[in-house]
Amino acid sequence: MGLLSRKVTCNSHGQDSSYFLGWQEYEKNPYDEVKNPKGIIQMGLAENQLCFDLLESWLAKNPEAACFKRDGQSLFKELALFQDYHGLPAFKQALVDFMAEIRGNKVTFDTNNIVLTAGATSANETLMFCLAEKGEAFLLPTPYYPGFDRDLKWRTGAEIVPIVCTSSNGFQITESALEEAYQEAQRKNLRVKGLLVTNPSNPLGTTIKRNELDLLINFITVKEIHLISDEIYSGTVFSSPEFISIMEVLKDRKMDKSQEWERVHVVYSLSKDLGLPGFRVGAIYSNDPIVVAAATKMSSFGLVSSQTQFLLSAMLSDKKFTKEYLSKNHKRLRKRRSKLVSGLEKTGISCLDSNAGLFCWVDMRHLLSSDTFEAEMELWKRIVYDVKLNISPGSSCHCTEPGWFHVCFANMSEETLKLAMQRLKSFVASITINKQSHQELMNTRRKNRTNWVFRLSFQSFHDREQDER
Amino acid sequence: MAIEIEKPSVGLSKVAVSDTHGEDSPYFAGWKAYDENPYNESSNPSGVIQMGLAENQVSFDLLEKYLEEHSEASSWGKGAPGFRENALFQDYHGLKSFRQAMANFMGQIRGGRAKFDPDRIVLTAGATAANELLTFILADPGDALLVPTPYYPGFDRDLRWRTGVKIVPIHCDSSNNFQVTPEAMETAYQCAESMNLKVRGILITNPSNPLGATIQRSVLEQILDFAVNKNIHLVSDEIYSGSTFSSSEFISIAEILENRSYRDSERVHIVYSLSKDLGLPGFRVGTIYSYNDKVVCTARRMSSFTLISSQTQHLLACMLSNKEFSENYIKTNRERLTKRYDMIIKGLKNAGIECLKGNAGLFCWMNLSPLLEEPTRESELELWKTILNEVRLNISPGSSCHCSGPGWFRVCFANISEQTLEIALERIHKFMEQRRRN
């Protein structure tokens, strides 16, 4: 027939990228402690599995909420019929209170300014529909979450222009990088409508510093554009520096009556902080009533199930629970991260110093055969197919420097993480020739590369043959 | 209806400020009036009775009974062993058990005359999302979909707003009970061509909203033939399929395809939802069933923007896999809706009001054209306002459904109790009597 829209044939859904190919490999051969101990360990999934016991214990103590009951009364009918896109008032209140709690109550949120959506995926796309269209672009600091290519561009027709951040300063956003990105958009004939930052950052795992946030605000003021702050990892900040929300900075700068106030929008979700990606709970927070009104109507295309709103309104209204949850969540993430970091250190691999998130930004530049993305791909394929770890290559996050990898630590057990580190250690040992200095290594690399590549290719070819039999 | 796009306020997209969301129409104005003065049997007996909301409230007891007897469906069992896995499940393929249950349920509704493959089911947060998603996939901005009138007012938003796709109406009228004809389809197609619009598909609702009637077999064949001839898609929105008063009267496009050995099926897509048949609009459960592999694949990827809560998928997988429950539900729901329908038709007849002969849905299509001052849209809106303010009933004027002949109104009967329906019918009776006297 061939009569489908251009959206079907275009690539903006991004699902042919390596990010997704790694997933496919994993799905064919997933690790299981008992059933498939030689399988691929999933380290490309930013899930938070560390605090389910807390959720389960709350559910056991509060069985009514999942059964549509409150104080012995069944609210099933009301909930089943409730499809108001303004959202369940009790849930919105509980959600804004939770968001405030995460920010140490330094900022508060108004339920009239919040729009519920089926996940942050939906929130980001909806905001983009409200703020940009074909011929327009949003600037995003690299590296960024691969899903943004689909979420922000696919159906909206908008474009992304990268704000290039580098390891020279820990991938922080600079004024020159912002300006350069803006110029690049102009060169491409794209009208810049705004910036989108993820804070804490995915994939870096770092919170954005106050001076960077100030920079962003200054930039959007001068250019008269929007700023979207995707703060879905705000509840995963486990060590200093503290998380500073863009809203806090605006407040501190007494900008709450300014024009910029209405051009700053926050995206939130319970998928990462609470580990509930299946429940599809996202939110857009905006101080612009027109954006709130438009986004609210658009949320018709992705409302949160009333059943889920009800359950979570009970859970998040339990302040004793939220306090304990946030505190334990931080503790466990901090501990787990340090296990990953020390495991990597033992293998001579370092990470970007991070204080948040469910992943680390790992530096494997020294393991590359050359300072190229081809070499990064080679290394990545070795790690997926031979070491059997699914991690995400920096290129899938649009990183401009080859050799960085996104490695998740909160979606598996401690034992599995340990095993992953062991596998990695063995692998690195087998490719590290000897303790030559880095410069010597670079010089001899060209000589040794053929042997190294050949040895690995031969090994993996051999292994694969075994698997296919 | 021309859409005026104001000069965009600083920095917002045209989509954000356009009124293509359609929420300024009378369809929504009636809602506002109701919200301000809602009827309540005890506390506000003279308030506005809501008859503009196509909700199914007649079978909740069946659902509640199931939930009481199967707590594992809502609470993941004792100690919540399945909670973790469920909470993490965000796979856009959807819960296999739920897709299986939906496929079976859809088959049961069609009396087993059509079978559905769970792997062709794509889950979306409601039929609203399903219709928009399909439009994104089947058409490009500026293209057109043909939709028979009268149609569900929400389509103006769902099919056009963010997609940039246009609706070209296939005009149907009372001369033949508003059935679609090949001539009407051809006229609409030519109309689109004359406006330089590329027609990508035809979207039908079967059973029809607002008509409350199923599409006849011969008409379905004609519609499919038309789609084949023009090489366009056919979307069949069958969200009221479980609300037909008699199982045998509803013929799904799936049956037509099966009879043709699935020839030409790659252009056919069915939309379904549990909002009407099961009365669960709050749970956001919609599906796209497509016979086209590429559409299924793309729709699945796009469903990332509108996934169904896994908590809800789990609940409904349990409920709908229970054959005893589903069979009893379908049968009982049908019986109760039929009873309601008979009651309202009789009551309206006693008041001297005729309706289109209906056999499905949660509403009837009432003919008040004899009451119009003039056979015009303005007259219809005057009458609508009178009914809203004097009779204090919120019903939907045909013009909000793009009906070409003025004087028709959609009246919902399944979202209120029998007692309230009695009161509404009494009020209508009184109103008609007064008019006769004057």
Strand count, sense and barrel status of the largest sheet of chain A are: 7 strands, mixed
The percent range for helix content of chain A is 40-55%
Q: What is the H/E string of chain B?
A: HHEHHHHEHEHEHEHEHEEHHHEEHEEEH
- Spatial order of the strands forming the largest sheet of chain B: 2-8-7-6-5-3-4
CATH level-4 homologous superfamily of the largest domain in chain A: Type I PLP-dependent aspartate aminotransferase-like (Major domain)
Separation, N- and C-terminal Cα atoms of chain A: 39 Å
What general form of chain A does the structure show?
globular
Strand content of chain A: 5-15%
> What structural class do you assign from the helix and strand content of chain B?
alpha/beta
Name of the CATH class of the largest domain in chain A:
Alpha Beta
* Strand arrangement, major sheet of chain A: 4-10-9-8-7-5-6
Q: How many helix segments of chain B?
A: 16
CATH architectural name of the largest domain in chain A: 3-Layer(aba) Sandwich
Number of domains of chain A: 2
Which structural class do you get from the secondary structure elements of chain A? Answer: alpha/beta
Oligomer: heterodimer
Question: The CATH topology of the largest domain in chain A is what?
Answer: Aspartate Aminotransferase, domain 2
